[in-house]
Design brief:
With 240 residues, the chain is α/β, with parallel strands linked by helices. The protein folds into two domains: 4-81 and 154-233, Rossmann fold (3-Layer(aba) Sandwich); 92-152, no CATH class. The protein has ten helices and ten strands. The chain has a six-stranded mixed sheet, sandwiched between helices. α3 (97-104) runs parallel beside α6 (138-149). Keywords: Amino-acid transport, ATP-binding, Nucleotide-binding, Transport. This is ABC transporter ATP-binding protein.
């Protein structure tokens, strides 16, 4: 894919003695949202962690904007403009919301313009700006986790299950904020179990099974094909 910002070619990765990724091939187009879907244990989170350098690929290549980052350390990958929102949120509970945000802005101080944009997306963060992050609700902590990735311009966002365990109202807020990020031309690779959110945000889709990509295509193609959903992911729903 000529406009790919991120490219994985035959990527294998082990966790301890277990081989989790068995030759992942994936293209993430620039300026669009790619959903990484699949059953639990398919290797989705491991894929994101391997891209971020938290797990080392033992075979294959990972290229970011044409540069081989397969062996680069996590800090170096982050410096190249990759924002990572882990499934466990990765916030500092003992620090305030403000301190969490300022720590995330490593390239330049957090500007008022950027703070205003984040507050517009996530109003509770303004309310609890001086509060300890550990005192936030689950949904507010997830807002902070995503806001940290938005603390400075990124060329790529890796987001792992941002709506997991959240109430419907918070999911709507989260989806709206990510939609706004998408509208500004962000490139996003996102793991998401909520198929409605995936349909709403996704431009492209890759489905994983047993550590491999087994299907890729437009998100709307999968969204409109119930038989394909059930075959690939065991879903049984009426597509809208």
């Amino acid at each position: 894919m000529s406009n790919s910002l991120l490219s994985l070619k035959d990527v294998h990765a082990n966790i301890h003695q277990y081989n989790i990724l068995h030759g992942v091939n994936l293209e993430v187009p620039k300026g669009e949202v790619t959903m990484l879907l699949g059953r639990n244990g398919a290797g989705k989170t491991t894929t994101l962690r391997t891209i971020m350098g938290l797990w080392q690929a033992h075979a294959g290549t990972i290229e970011l904007a044409g540069m081989d980052v397969t062996r680069q350390p996590t800090a170096q990958i982050a410096k190249q403009g990759v924002g990572y929102v882990p499934e466990d949120m990765g916030i500092f509970s003992d620090l305030t919301v403000e301190e969490n945000m300022r720590l995330a802005a490593v390239s330049a101080p957090l500007s008022q313009e950027r703070m205003d944009r984040i507050f517009l997306a996530f109003p509770p963060l303004k309310t609890f700006w001086h509060s300890a992050a550990g005192n936030l609700s689950g949904g507010q902590k997830q807002m902070l986790s995503i806001a940290r990735a938005m603390a400075e311009e990124r060329q790529l966002y890796l987001i792992d299950e941002p709506t997991k365990g959240l109430a419907p109202a918070i999911i709507n807020t989260m989806a709206a904020a990510l939609s706004e990020l998408k509208a500004k031309g962000a490139t996003i690779l996102m793991v998401e179990q909520n198929f409605e959110v995936a349909k709403y945000l996704g431009d492209h889709c890759a489905v994983m099974e047993d550590g491999k990509i087994i299907w890729t295509g437009p998100m709307n193609e999968l969204a409109q094909d119930n038989e394909l959903q059930e075959r690939l992911m065991g879903l049984n729903m009426e597509a809208s």
